[in-house]
Specification:
The structure holds 2 protein chains of 2 kinds. Chain A contains 2 helices and 5 strands, in the order E-E-H-E-H-E-E. By secondary structure, chain A is α+β, with helices and mostly antiparallel strands. Chain A has one domain: Ubiquitin-like (UB roll) (Roll), CATH 3.10.20. In chain A, a hairpin with a 5-residue loop joins strand 1 (about 1-5) and strand 2 (about 15-20). In chain A, about 45% of the residues are buried. Chain B is of the alpha/beta class. Chain B has helices at about 15-25, 50-55, 60, 65-70, 135-140, 155-165, 190-200, 250-255, 300-310, 375-390, 395-400, 405-410, and strands spanning about 5-10, 30-35, 75, 80-85, 90-95, 100, 105, 110-115, 125-130, 150, 170-175, 205, 210-215, 220-225, 230-235, 235-240, 245, 260-265, 275, 280-285, 290-295, 325-330, 330-340, 345-350, 360-365, 365-375. Chain B starts with a strand and ends with a helix. Classes of the chains: A alpha+beta, B alpha/beta. The interface between A and B is medium-sized, with 21 and 31 residues. Bound molecules: flavin-adenine dinucleotide and FE2/S2 (inorganic) cluster.
Chain lengths: ~110, ~400
Protein backbone atom coordinates (compact mmCIF):
# COMPACT_ATOMS: atom_id res chain seq x y z
CA UNK A 1 0.00 0.00 0.00
CA UNK A 2 1.14 3.53 -0.70
CA UNK A 3 -0.31 6.92 0.06
CA UNK A 4 -1.26 9.47 -2.60
CA UNK A 5 -2.02 13.08 -1.67
CA UNK A 6 -4.26 14.92 -4.13
CA UNK A 7 -4.32 18.70 -4.01
CA UNK A 8 -7.28 20.39 -5.65
CA UNK A 9 -6.96 23.73 -7.49
CA UNK A 10 -8.60 25.45 -4.49
CA UNK A 11 -5.98 24.02 -2.14
CA UNK A 12 -8.21 21.31 -0.64
CA UNK A 13 -6.23 18.12 0.00
CA UNK A 14 -7.33 14.53 0.16
CA UNK A 15 -5.29 11.42 0.88
CA UNK A 16 -5.94 7.93 -0.41
CA UNK A 17 -4.23 4.58 -0.31
CA UNK A 18 -3.34 2.68 -3.44
CA UNK A 19 -2.08 -0.85 -3.72
CA UNK A 20 1.42 -1.41 -5.06
CA UNK A 21 1.45 -1.32 -8.83
CA UNK A 22 -1.89 0.47 -9.04
CA UNK A 23 -1.84 3.65 -11.12
CA UNK A 24 -2.48 7.01 -9.50
CA UNK A 25 -5.32 7.44 -12.02
CA UNK A 26 -7.08 4.33 -10.61
CA UNK A 27 -6.55 5.52 -7.06
CA UNK A 28 -8.23 8.77 -8.03
CA UNK A 29 -11.18 7.27 -9.90
CA UNK A 30 -11.75 4.58 -7.28
CA UNK A 31 -12.09 7.28 -4.64
CA UNK A 32 -14.13 9.68 -6.75
CA UNK A 33 -11.41 12.32 -6.64
CA UNK A 34 -12.90 15.08 -8.75
CA UNK A 35 -10.89 16.50 -11.63
CA UNK A 36 -9.23 13.26 -12.73
CA UNK A 37 -11.28 11.41 -15.32
CA UNK A 38 -9.14 8.70 -16.92
CA UNK A 39 -11.56 8.17 -19.75
CA UNK A 40 -9.45 5.71 -21.76
CA UNK A 41 -8.74 3.56 -18.74
CA UNK A 42 -4.98 4.14 -18.88
CA UNK A 43 -4.36 3.39 -22.54
CA UNK A 44 -2.58 6.72 -23.17
CA UNK A 45 -5.32 7.83 -25.51
CA UNK A 46 -7.32 10.54 -23.72
CA UNK A 47 -5.09 12.79 -21.58
CA UNK A 48 -7.96 13.26 -19.09
CA UNK A 49 -5.73 12.05 -16.28
CA UNK A 50 -3.42 15.08 -16.55
CA UNK A 51 -1.80 16.18 -13.25
CA UNK A 52 1.12 18.25 -12.01
CA UNK A 53 3.52 16.26 -9.88
CA UNK A 54 4.63 18.32 -6.88
CA UNK A 55 8.12 19.72 -7.50
CA UNK A 56 9.47 17.89 -4.44
CA UNK A 57 8.39 14.57 -5.97
CA UNK A 58 9.47 15.21 -9.54
CA UNK A 59 12.58 13.06 -9.11
CA UNK A 60 10.69 10.12 -7.60
CA UNK A 61 8.61 9.29 -10.66
CA UNK A 62 10.04 7.43 -13.62
CA UNK A 63 10.68 9.57 -16.68
CA UNK A 64 8.02 9.87 -19.34
CA UNK A 65 7.93 7.60 -22.33
CA UNK A 66 7.79 9.19 -25.78
CA UNK A 67 4.15 8.09 -26.07
CA UNK A 68 3.21 9.90 -22.85
CA UNK A 69 5.11 12.97 -23.97
CA UNK A 70 3.18 12.99 -27.27
CA UNK A 71 -0.13 12.71 -25.44
CA UNK A 72 0.68 15.69 -23.21
CA UNK A 73 -0.11 17.74 -26.32
CA UNK A 74 -3.74 16.74 -25.84
CA UNK A 75 -4.28 18.03 -22.27
CA UNK A 76 -7.08 20.52 -21.69
CA UNK A 77 -4.96 22.69 -19.42
CA UNK A 78 -1.61 23.96 -20.70
CA UNK A 79 1.08 21.48 -19.60
CA UNK A 80 4.13 22.52 -17.57
CA UNK A 81 7.44 20.80 -16.84
CA UNK A 82 5.65 19.00 -13.97
CA UNK A 83 2.84 17.69 -16.14
CA UNK A 84 2.25 13.95 -16.21
CA UNK A 85 -0.52 11.60 -17.21
CA UNK A 86 -1.18 9.88 -13.91
CA UNK A 87 -2.26 6.59 -15.49
CA UNK A 88 1.48 6.22 -16.06
CA UNK A 89 2.50 6.81 -12.43
CA UNK A 90 2.30 3.78 -10.18
CA UNK A 91 2.00 3.36 -6.44
CA UNK A 92 4.97 1.80 -4.70
CA UNK A 93 7.75 2.47 -2.23
CA UNK A 94 9.31 5.24 -4.36
CA UNK A 95 6.06 7.12 -4.68
CA UNK A 96 4.63 6.52 -1.19
CA UNK A 97 3.23 9.86 -0.06
CA UNK A 98 3.48 11.49 -3.50
CA UNK A 99 1.79 14.87 -3.82
CA UNK A 100 -0.28 15.37 -6.97
CA UNK A 101 -1.79 18.69 -8.03
CA UNK A 102 -5.02 18.50 -10.01
CA UNK A 103 -5.45 20.94 -12.92
CA UNK A 104 -8.35 23.34 -13.12
CA UNK A 105 -9.72 21.84 -16.31
CA UNK A 106 -9.49 18.31 -17.59
CA UNK A 107 -11.63 18.31 -20.74
CA UNK B 1 -43.48 6.84 0.66
CA UNK B 2 -40.96 4.79 -1.15
CA UNK B 3 -37.28 5.65 -1.04
CA UNK B 4 -35.57 6.75 -4.25
CA UNK B 5 -33.82 3.90 -5.97
CA UNK B 6 -32.05 4.37 -9.27
CA UNK B 7 -31.81 0.91 -10.77
CA UNK B 8 -29.21 0.46 -13.49
CA UNK B 9 -29.44 -2.58 -15.74
CA UNK B 10 -25.99 -3.45 -17.08
CA UNK B 11 -22.82 -3.23 -15.00
CA UNK B 12 -20.58 -2.14 -17.86
CA UNK B 13 -18.84 1.09 -18.81
CA UNK B 14 -21.96 3.26 -18.82
CA UNK B 15 -23.57 1.71 -15.75
CA UNK B 16 -20.41 2.03 -13.64
CA UNK B 17 -19.88 5.61 -14.70
CA UNK B 18 -23.47 6.51 -13.90
CA UNK B 19 -23.27 5.06 -10.38
CA UNK B 20 -20.04 6.95 -9.69
CA UNK B 21 -21.31 10.20 -11.24
CA UNK B 22 -24.53 10.11 -9.24
CA UNK B 23 -22.52 9.91 -6.03
CA UNK B 24 -19.99 12.53 -7.20
CA UNK B 25 -22.86 14.91 -7.80
CA UNK B 26 -24.28 14.24 -4.35
CA UNK B 27 -27.16 11.85 -5.02
CA UNK B 28 -28.21 10.41 -1.65
CA UNK B 29 -30.82 7.83 -2.66
CA UNK B 30 -30.27 4.17 -3.28
CA UNK B 31 -28.34 2.98 -6.35
CA UNK B 32 -28.64 -0.60 -7.54
CA UNK B 33 -26.36 -1.83 -10.31
CA UNK B 34 -27.42 -5.13 -11.87
CA UNK B 35 -25.09 -7.04 -14.17
CA UNK B 36 -25.20 -10.30 -16.01
CA UNK B 37 -21.44 -10.81 -15.98
CA UNK B 38 -19.57 -12.15 -12.97
CA UNK B 39 -17.05 -9.28 -12.82
CA UNK B 40 -17.26 -5.81 -11.39
CA UNK B 41 -17.46 -3.29 -14.26
CA UNK B 42 -14.33 -3.47 -16.38
CA UNK B 43 -12.88 -1.74 -19.45
CA UNK B 44 -13.36 -3.63 -22.67
CA UNK B 45 -10.78 -1.82 -24.86
CA UNK B 46 -7.77 -3.69 -23.40
CA UNK B 47 -9.48 -7.01 -24.18
CA UNK B 48 -8.36 -6.76 -27.80
CA UNK B 49 -5.12 -4.96 -26.91
CA UNK B 50 -2.89 -5.25 -23.80
CA UNK B 51 -4.94 -7.94 -22.05
CA UNK B 52 -4.96 -10.32 -25.01
CA UNK B 53 -1.21 -9.75 -25.35
CA UNK B 54 -0.81 -10.68 -21.69
CA UNK B 55 0.47 -7.22 -20.78
CA UNK B 56 -2.08 -6.60 -18.06
CA UNK B 57 -4.14 -8.63 -15.62
CA UNK B 58 -7.81 -8.65 -14.68
CA UNK B 59 -7.29 -6.24 -11.75
CA UNK B 60 -5.98 -3.64 -14.20
CA UNK B 61 -9.18 -3.90 -16.22
CA UNK B 62 -11.53 -2.78 -13.44
CA UNK B 63 -12.97 0.65 -14.20
CA UNK B 64 -12.91 1.40 -10.46
CA UNK B 65 -11.84 -0.70 -7.49
CA UNK B 66 -14.48 -3.16 -6.41
CA UNK B 67 -14.35 -1.55 -2.96
CA UNK B 68 -15.53 1.79 -4.38
CA UNK B 69 -19.10 0.56 -4.76
CA UNK B 70 -19.53 -0.45 -1.12
CA UNK B 71 -17.76 2.70 0.08
CA UNK B 72 -20.15 4.80 -1.97
CA UNK B 73 -23.19 2.84 -0.95
CA UNK B 74 -23.85 1.37 -4.38
CA UNK B 75 -25.53 -2.03 -4.29
CA UNK B 76 -23.92 -4.20 -6.96
CA UNK B 77 -25.53 -7.48 -7.92
CA UNK B 78 -23.41 -9.53 -10.32
CA UNK B 79 -24.29 -12.63 -12.34
CA UNK B 80 -27.94 -11.63 -12.35
CA UNK B 81 -30.02 -11.18 -15.45
CA UNK B 82 -32.90 -8.77 -15.61
CA UNK B 83 -35.74 -10.55 -17.30
CA UNK B 84 -38.51 -8.01 -17.58
CA UNK B 85 -39.72 -4.56 -16.68
CA UNK B 86 -43.13 -3.86 -15.17
CA UNK B 87 -43.65 -0.20 -15.99
CA UNK B 88 -46.92 0.13 -14.09
CA UNK B 89 -45.53 -1.33 -10.88
CA UNK B 90 -42.12 0.31 -11.50
CA UNK B 91 -40.24 -2.90 -10.85
CA UNK B 92 -37.78 -5.08 -12.71
CA UNK B 93 -37.67 -8.80 -12.22
CA UNK B 94 -34.68 -11.05 -12.33
CA UNK B 95 -34.47 -14.46 -13.98
CA UNK B 96 -35.05 -16.17 -10.65
CA UNK B 97 -38.27 -14.24 -10.07
CA UNK B 98 -37.03 -11.66 -7.55
CA UNK B 99 -38.43 -8.18 -8.15
CA UNK B 100 -36.70 -4.88 -7.45
CA UNK B 101 -38.53 -1.57 -7.26
CA UNK B 102 -37.16 1.52 -8.99
CA UNK B 103 -37.91 5.20 -8.92
CA UNK B 104 -35.82 5.66 -12.06
CA UNK B 105 -34.62 2.88 -14.33
CA UNK B 106 -31.58 3.17 -16.58
CA UNK B 107 -30.96 0.66 -19.35
CA UNK B 108 -27.23 0.37 -19.97
CA UNK B 109 -27.29 -3.07 -21.50
CA UNK B 110 -24.69 -2.61 -24.24
CA UNK B 111 -24.76 -5.08 -27.09
CA UNK B 112 -23.92 -8.59 -28.17
CA UNK B 113 -21.68 -9.62 -31.05
CA UNK B 114 -23.52 -10.42 -34.27
CA UNK B 115 -23.18 -14.16 -34.78
CA UNK B 116 -22.67 -16.18 -37.91
CA UNK B 117 -25.97 -17.83 -38.72
CA UNK B 118 -24.41 -21.10 -39.86
CA UNK B 119 -25.90 -24.08 -37.98
CA UNK B 120 -22.80 -26.19 -38.68
CA UNK B 121 -20.90 -23.93 -36.28
CA UNK B 122 -23.27 -24.55 -33.38
CA UNK B 123 -20.91 -26.93 -31.57
CA UNK B 124 -17.59 -25.41 -32.60
CA UNK B 125 -15.38 -24.58 -29.62
CA UNK B 126 -12.79 -22.81 -31.75
CA UNK B 127 -15.01 -20.01 -33.01
CA UNK B 128 -14.65 -16.84 -30.96
CA UNK B 129 -16.70 -13.68 -30.58
CA UNK B 130 -15.11 -10.80 -28.72
CA UNK B 131 -17.13 -8.87 -26.19
CA UNK B 132 -16.52 -10.12 -22.67
CA UNK B 133 -13.59 -11.01 -20.47
CA UNK B 134 -14.82 -14.59 -20.58
CA UNK B 135 -14.71 -14.55 -24.41
CA UNK B 136 -11.14 -13.31 -24.39
CA UNK B 137 -9.97 -15.64 -21.61
CA UNK B 138 -11.16 -18.52 -23.75
CA UNK B 139 -9.41 -17.12 -26.81
CA UNK B 140 -6.21 -16.52 -24.86
CA UNK B 141 -5.88 -20.25 -24.20
CA UNK B 142 -5.60 -20.82 -27.93
CA UNK B 143 -3.48 -17.78 -28.73
CA UNK B 144 -0.09 -19.36 -29.35
CA UNK B 145 2.69 -18.86 -31.82
CA UNK B 146 2.20 -20.82 -35.03
CA UNK B 147 -1.58 -21.20 -34.62
CA UNK B 148 -3.48 -20.49 -37.85
CA UNK B 149 -6.07 -17.81 -37.16
CA UNK B 150 -8.76 -16.67 -39.57
CA UNK B 151 -10.66 -13.50 -38.80
CA UNK B 152 -14.00 -12.77 -40.39
CA UNK B 153 -14.63 -9.03 -40.51
CA UNK B 154 -12.28 -6.11 -41.11
CA UNK B 155 -13.64 -3.69 -38.51
CA UNK B 156 -11.79 -2.35 -35.47
CA UNK B 157 -12.13 -5.55 -33.48
CA UNK B 158 -10.89 -7.74 -36.33
CA UNK B 159 -7.93 -5.48 -37.02
CA UNK B 160 -6.95 -5.18 -33.35
CA UNK B 161 -7.12 -8.95 -32.91
CA UNK B 162 -5.00 -9.32 -36.07
CA UNK B 163 -2.34 -6.98 -34.63
CA UNK B 164 -2.11 -8.76 -31.32
CA UNK B 165 -2.11 -12.13 -33.07
CA UNK B 166 0.85 -11.14 -35.24
CA UNK B 167 2.68 -9.88 -32.14
CA UNK B 168 2.05 -13.28 -30.56
CA UNK B 169 3.33 -15.09 -33.66
CA UNK B 170 0.08 -16.48 -35.04
CA UNK B 171 -0.51 -16.86 -38.78
CA UNK B 172 -3.33 -14.51 -39.64
CA UNK B 173 -5.76 -14.33 -42.54
CA UNK B 174 -8.43 -11.64 -42.47
CA UNK B 175 -11.54 -11.99 -44.59
CA UNK B 176 -13.55 -8.89 -45.40
CA UNK B 177 -16.70 -8.87 -47.50
CA UNK B 178 -16.45 -5.29 -48.82
CA UNK B 179 -13.65 -3.85 -50.91
CA UNK B 180 -11.78 -2.32 -47.95
CA UNK B 181 -11.25 -2.66 -44.20
CA UNK B 182 -12.99 -0.24 -41.80
CA UNK B 183 -15.40 0.54 -44.65
CA UNK B 184 -18.24 1.42 -42.29
CA UNK B 185 -16.28 3.95 -40.25
CA UNK B 186 -13.67 5.65 -42.38
CA UNK B 187 -12.70 6.87 -45.85
CA UNK B 188 -10.75 4.92 -48.48
CA UNK B 189 -7.33 6.55 -47.79
CA UNK B 190 -7.43 5.43 -44.14
CA UNK B 191 -8.51 1.95 -45.19
CA UNK B 192 -5.57 1.82 -47.64
CA UNK B 193 -3.22 2.96 -44.90
CA UNK B 194 -4.31 0.20 -42.50
CA UNK B 195 -4.36 -2.46 -45.22
CA UNK B 196 -0.74 -1.57 -46.00
CA UNK B 197 0.31 -1.69 -42.34
CA UNK B 198 -1.33 -5.06 -41.79
CA UNK B 199 0.23 -6.43 -44.96
CA UNK B 200 3.64 -5.16 -43.79
CA UNK B 201 3.09 -6.95 -40.50
CA UNK B 202 2.33 -10.20 -42.30
CA UNK B 203 -1.47 -10.38 -42.25
CA UNK B 204 -3.05 -11.92 -45.34
CA UNK B 205 -5.97 -9.66 -46.13
CA UNK B 206 -8.67 -10.95 -48.44
CA UNK B 207 -11.01 -8.21 -49.60
CA UNK B 208 -14.36 -8.72 -51.32
CA UNK B 209 -14.17 -12.18 -49.96
CA UNK B 210 -16.77 -14.32 -48.25
CA UNK B 211 -16.80 -17.77 -46.74
CA UNK B 212 -18.91 -20.16 -48.77
CA UNK B 213 -18.34 -23.16 -46.50
CA UNK B 214 -17.19 -23.83 -42.95
CA UNK B 215 -15.63 -27.30 -42.89
CA UNK B 216 -15.92 -28.92 -39.48
CA UNK B 217 -14.11 -31.90 -37.99
CA UNK B 218 -15.60 -34.86 -36.14
CA UNK B 219 -15.76 -32.87 -32.88
CA UNK B 220 -17.67 -30.02 -34.52
CA UNK B 221 -14.73 -27.59 -34.58
CA UNK B 222 -13.97 -25.57 -37.71
CA UNK B 223 -11.01 -27.04 -39.56
CA UNK B 224 -11.11 -25.12 -42.82
CA UNK B 225 -12.87 -22.34 -44.65
CA UNK B 226 -13.76 -22.44 -48.31
CA UNK B 227 -13.83 -18.94 -49.72
CA UNK B 228 -16.13 -17.61 -52.41
CA UNK B 229 -13.41 -17.97 -55.06
CA UNK B 230 -12.95 -21.64 -54.16
CA UNK B 231 -9.75 -21.21 -52.14
CA UNK B 232 -9.50 -23.51 -49.14
CA UNK B 233 -7.98 -22.17 -45.95
CA UNK B 234 -7.01 -24.58 -43.16
CA UNK B 235 -7.49 -22.97 -39.75
CA UNK B 236 -6.97 -23.73 -36.08
CA UNK B 237 -9.17 -20.97 -34.73
CA UNK B 238 -11.69 -18.49 -36.08
CA UNK B 239 -12.48 -15.03 -34.71
CA UNK B 240 -15.65 -13.34 -35.88
CA UNK B 241 -15.95 -9.55 -35.69
CA UNK B 242 -18.94 -8.59 -37.81
CA UNK B 243 -20.62 -6.00 -35.64
CA UNK B 244 -22.68 -5.52 -32.54
CA UNK B 245 -26.39 -5.98 -31.98
CA UNK B 246 -27.71 -3.67 -29.26
CA UNK B 247 -29.33 -5.49 -26.31
CA UNK B 248 -32.81 -4.05 -26.70
CA UNK B 249 -35.04 -7.00 -25.79
CA UNK B 250 -35.95 -5.69 -22.31
CA UNK B 251 -37.01 -2.35 -23.73
CA UNK B 252 -38.90 -4.00 -26.53
CA UNK B 253 -40.84 -6.27 -24.17
CA UNK B 254 -41.71 -3.21 -22.12
CA UNK B 255 -43.19 -1.54 -25.18
CA UNK B 256 -40.53 1.15 -25.49
CA UNK B 257 -39.44 2.29 -28.94
CA UNK B 258 -36.64 0.22 -30.41
CA UNK B 259 -34.94 0.58 -33.78
CA UNK B 260 -31.28 -0.48 -33.91
CA UNK B 261 -31.04 0.65 -30.29
CA UNK B 262 -33.35 1.96 -27.61
CA UNK B 263 -34.79 5.22 -28.88
CA UNK B 264 -34.23 8.15 -26.54
CA UNK B 265 -34.56 11.93 -26.83
CA UNK B 266 -31.65 14.33 -26.45
CA UNK B 267 -31.99 14.03 -22.66
CA UNK B 268 -31.49 10.24 -23.03
CA UNK B 269 -35.10 9.66 -21.94
CA UNK B 270 -37.42 7.06 -23.36
CA UNK B 271 -41.08 8.07 -23.65
CA UNK B 272 -41.58 6.58 -20.15
CA UNK B 273 -40.65 9.44 -17.80
CA UNK B 274 -38.87 7.03 -15.43
CA UNK B 275 -36.85 5.05 -17.95
CA UNK B 276 -33.61 6.11 -19.67
CA UNK B 277 -31.00 4.45 -21.87
CA UNK B 278 -27.27 5.16 -22.17
CA UNK B 279 -24.16 3.71 -23.80
CA UNK B 280 -23.86 1.38 -26.77
CA UNK B 281 -27.56 0.54 -26.60
CA UNK B 282 -28.92 4.11 -26.82
CA UNK B 283 -29.97 5.64 -30.14
CA UNK B 284 -30.26 9.38 -29.73
CA UNK B 285 -30.82 12.45 -31.90
CA UNK B 286 -27.47 13.95 -32.82
CA UNK B 287 -27.87 17.71 -32.94
CA UNK B 288 -24.83 18.19 -35.19
CA UNK B 289 -26.05 16.00 -38.03
CA UNK B 290 -29.79 16.04 -37.33
CA UNK B 291 -29.95 12.25 -37.53
CA UNK B 292 -30.34 9.43 -35.03
CA UNK B 293 -27.04 7.99 -33.86
CA UNK B 294 -25.92 5.04 -31.83
CA UNK B 295 -22.27 5.22 -30.88
CA UNK B 296 -20.16 2.34 -29.64
CA UNK B 297 -17.35 3.88 -27.65
CA UNK B 298 -16.13 4.36 -24.12
CA UNK B 299 -16.12 8.18 -24.20
CA UNK B 300 -19.71 8.16 -25.47
CA UNK B 301 -20.85 5.76 -22.74
CA UNK B 302 -19.06 7.76 -20.04
CA UNK B 303 -20.31 11.14 -21.24
CA UNK B 304 -23.89 9.95 -21.55
CA UNK B 305 -23.65 8.59 -18.01
CA UNK B 306 -22.38 11.90 -16.67
CA UNK B 307 -25.05 13.83 -18.55
CA UNK B 308 -27.82 11.58 -17.29
CA UNK B 309 -26.53 11.81 -13.71
CA UNK B 310 -27.09 15.57 -13.83
CA UNK B 311 -30.60 15.08 -15.19
CA UNK B 312 -31.47 12.53 -12.52
CA UNK B 313 -30.31 15.00 -9.89
CA UNK B 314 -32.81 17.54 -11.09
CA UNK B 315 -30.89 19.54 -13.68
CA UNK B 316 -32.26 18.34 -17.02
CA UNK B 317 -29.22 18.25 -19.30
CA UNK B 318 -29.10 17.68 -23.03
CA UNK B 319 -26.58 15.18 -24.33
CA UNK B 320 -24.38 17.11 -26.72
CA UNK B 321 -20.89 15.93 -27.20
CA UNK B 322 -18.30 15.62 -29.91
CA UNK B 323 -17.62 11.92 -30.07
CA UNK B 324 -14.13 10.50 -30.08
CA UNK B 325 -12.64 7.05 -30.21
CA UNK B 326 -9.30 5.34 -30.37
CA UNK B 327 -7.78 2.13 -31.64
CA UNK B 328 -4.33 0.64 -31.11
CA UNK B 329 -2.79 -1.56 -33.77
CA UNK B 330 0.86 -2.63 -33.59
CA UNK B 331 2.83 0.50 -32.70
CA UNK B 332 0.17 2.70 -34.26
CA UNK B 333 -2.41 4.68 -32.32
CA UNK B 334 -5.42 5.95 -34.18
CA UNK B 335 -7.60 8.67 -32.67
CA UNK B 336 -10.85 9.69 -34.27
CA UNK B 337 -12.81 12.79 -33.39
CA UNK B 338 -16.14 14.01 -34.72
CA UNK B 339 -18.59 12.26 -36.98
CA UNK B 340 -17.88 12.14 -40.66
CA UNK B 341 -20.53 11.65 -43.33
CA UNK B 342 -19.97 9.81 -46.61
CA UNK B 343 -20.30 12.99 -48.67
CA UNK B 344 -17.81 15.06 -46.63
CA UNK B 345 -14.80 16.45 -48.45
CA UNK B 346 -11.72 14.40 -47.50
CA UNK B 347 -8.35 16.09 -47.03
CA UNK B 348 -5.31 13.88 -46.53
CA UNK B 349 -2.26 15.15 -44.69
CA UNK B 350 0.64 12.74 -44.94
CA UNK B 351 1.41 9.75 -47.11
CA UNK B 352 -0.95 6.78 -47.21
CA UNK B 353 1.64 4.60 -48.90
CA UNK B 354 4.49 5.14 -46.48
CA UNK B 355 5.27 5.41 -42.77
CA UNK B 356 3.03 5.17 -39.73
CA UNK B 357 1.59 8.66 -39.47
CA UNK B 358 -1.44 10.05 -41.21
CA UNK B 359 -4.07 12.68 -40.58
CA UNK B 360 -7.29 12.80 -42.54
CA UNK B 361 -9.71 15.70 -42.17
CA UNK B 362 -13.38 15.70 -43.13
CA UNK B 363 -14.98 18.96 -44.17
CA UNK B 364 -18.68 19.72 -44.53
CA UNK B 365 -19.30 23.00 -46.36
CA UNK B 366 -15.80 24.08 -45.37
CA UNK B 367 -16.34 23.34 -41.67
CA UNK B 368 -14.23 20.63 -40.06
CA UNK B 369 -16.59 17.80 -39.09
CA UNK B 370 -14.20 15.01 -38.17
CA UNK B 371 -10.61 13.84 -38.27
CA UNK B 372 -8.92 10.45 -38.30
CA UNK B 373 -5.48 10.89 -36.80
CA UNK B 374 -2.85 8.18 -36.79
CA UNK B 375 0.32 8.56 -34.78
CA UNK B 376 -0.04 12.26 -34.06
CA UNK B 377 -1.75 13.19 -30.77
CA UNK B 378 -0.90 16.85 -31.44
CA UNK B 379 -2.97 16.81 -34.66
CA UNK B 380 -5.76 15.08 -32.74
CA UNK B 381 -5.73 17.76 -30.03
CA UNK B 382 -5.93 20.53 -32.61
CA UNK B 383 -8.68 18.81 -34.59
CA UNK B 384 -10.71 18.35 -31.41
CA UNK B 385 -10.55 22.07 -30.69
CA UNK B 386 -11.27 23.07 -34.29
CA UNK B 387 -14.35 20.87 -34.37
CA UNK B 388 -15.57 22.22 -31.04
CA UNK B 389 -15.17 25.77 -32.40
CA UNK B 390 -17.01 24.94 -35.63
CA UNK B 391 -13.95 26.28 -37.42
CA UNK B 392 -13.85 26.92 -41.15
CA UNK B 393 -10.46 25.76 -42.36
CA UNK B 394 -8.63 26.04 -45.63
CA UNK B 395 -8.27 22.56 -47.16
CA UNK B 396 -5.04 23.55 -48.93
CA UNK B 397 -3.47 24.52 -45.62
CA UNK B 398 -4.68 21.33 -43.93
CA UNK B 399 -3.13 19.19 -46.63
CA UNK B 400 0.21 21.01 -46.59
CA UNK B 401 2.62 18.81 -44.65
CA UNK B 402 4.75 21.85 -43.82
CA UNK B 403 1.95 23.81 -42.17
CA UNK B 404 1.74 23.70 -38.39
CA UNK B 405 -1.67 22.44 -37.20
CA UNK B 406 -1.44 24.67 -34.11
CA UNK B 407 -1.51 27.69 -36.42
CA UNK B 408 -4.98 26.61 -37.67
CA UNK B 409 -6.35 27.35 -34.23
CA UNK B 410 -5.52 31.01 -34.57
CA UNK B 411 -6.65 31.20 -38.16
CA UNK B 412 -9.94 29.38 -37.44
C1 LIG C 1 -12.77 -5.89 -27.62
C2 LIG C 1 -13.32 -4.50 -27.55
C3 LIG C 1 -12.47 -3.40 -27.77
C4 LIG C 1 -12.95 -2.10 -27.68
N1 LIG C 1 -12.09 -1.06 -27.87
C5 LIG C 1 -12.52 0.21 -27.74
C6 LIG C 1 -11.63 1.30 -27.85
O1 LIG C 1 -10.44 1.15 -28.12
N2 LIG C 1 -12.11 2.56 -27.65
C7 LIG C 1 -13.43 2.78 -27.35
O2 LIG C 1 -13.82 3.93 -27.16
N3 LIG C 1 -14.31 1.76 -27.25
C8 LIG C 1 -13.89 0.47 -27.43
N4 LIG C 1 -14.78 -0.57 -27.31
C9 LIG C 1 -16.21 -0.28 -27.10
C10 LIG C 1 -16.54 -0.04 -25.64
O3 LIG C 1 -16.02 -1.06 -24.84
C11 LIG C 1 -18.03 0.06 -25.47
O4 LIG C 1 -18.47 1.16 -26.22
C12 LIG C 1 -18.46 0.23 -24.02
O5 LIG C 1 -18.12 -0.89 -23.26
C13 LIG C 1 -19.96 0.50 -23.94
O6 LIG C 1 -20.40 0.53 -22.63
P1 LIG C 1 -21.88 0.07 -22.23
O7 LIG C 1 -21.96 0.24 -20.77
O8 LIG C 1 -22.84 0.72 -23.11
O9 LIG C 1 -21.93 -1.48 -22.60
P2 LIG C 1 -21.14 -2.68 -21.92
O10 LIG C 1 -19.82 -2.23 -21.43
O11 LIG C 1 -21.19 -3.79 -22.90
O12 LIG C 1 -22.02 -3.08 -20.65
C14 LIG C 1 -23.30 -3.63 -20.75
C15 LIG C 1 -23.47 -4.68 -19.67
O13 LIG C 1 -24.83 -4.97 -19.52
C16 LIG C 1 -24.99 -6.34 -19.25
N5 LIG C 1 -26.39 -6.71 -19.53
C17 LIG C 1 -27.03 -6.71 -20.73
N6 LIG C 1 -28.31 -7.11 -20.60
C18 LIG C 1 -28.48 -7.38 -19.29
C19 LIG C 1 -29.60 -7.83 -18.52
N7 LIG C 1 -30.78 -8.09 -19.08
N8 LIG C 1 -29.44 -8.02 -17.19
C20 LIG C 1 -28.25 -7.76 -16.59
N9 LIG C 1 -27.16 -7.32 -17.27
C21 LIG C 1 -27.28 -7.13 -18.59
C22 LIG C 1 -23.99 -6.95 -20.17
O14 LIG C 1 -23.70 -8.27 -19.76
C23 LIG C 1 -22.81 -6.01 -20.00
O15 LIG C 1 -21.96 -6.41 -18.96
C24 LIG C 1 -14.32 -1.88 -27.40
C25 LIG C 1 -15.19 -2.98 -27.20
C26 LIG C 1 -14.70 -4.27 -27.28
C27 LIG C 1 -15.63 -5.43 -27.05
S1 LIG D 1 -6.29 7.58 -18.59
FE1 LIG D 1 -6.30 8.15 -20.68
S2 LIG D 1 -4.30 8.91 -20.96
FE2 LIG D 1 -4.32 8.38 -18.86
Amino acid sequence: MAKVVFVHPDGRREEHEGSDGQSVMRVATSNLVSGIIGECGGDLSCATCHVFVDAAWAQSVPTKTAAEDDMLAVTAEEPTEFSRLCCQIYCGRETDGIVIHIPRIQR
Amino acid sequence: MQQDNVVIVGAGQAGAELAASLRSLGYLGQITLLGREAQYPYSRPPLSKAYLLGHCGTADLLIRDASMYAQQGVTVRLSVEVDCIDRDAKTVSLKDGETIAYSDLVLATGGSPRRLPNPELANALNVFYIRTLEDVDRLRQRFHSGIRLAIVGGGYIGLEIASVARRAGLEVTLIEATNRVLARVTCPPVSDFFQRIHAEEGVQIKLQSTVSEYVTDAGGDVSALVLGDGERLDVDILVVGIGLIPNTSLAEQAGLGVDNGILVDDYLRTPDPHIYAIGDVARFPDTLSGTLRRIESVPNAAEQARTLAATLLGTPTRFMCIPWFWSDQYDVKMQVVGLSAPDDEVVVRGDVSEGRKLTVYYLRKGVLSAADVVGSPADFAVAKKLIANGAVVDPVLLADPNSNPRSFLKAG
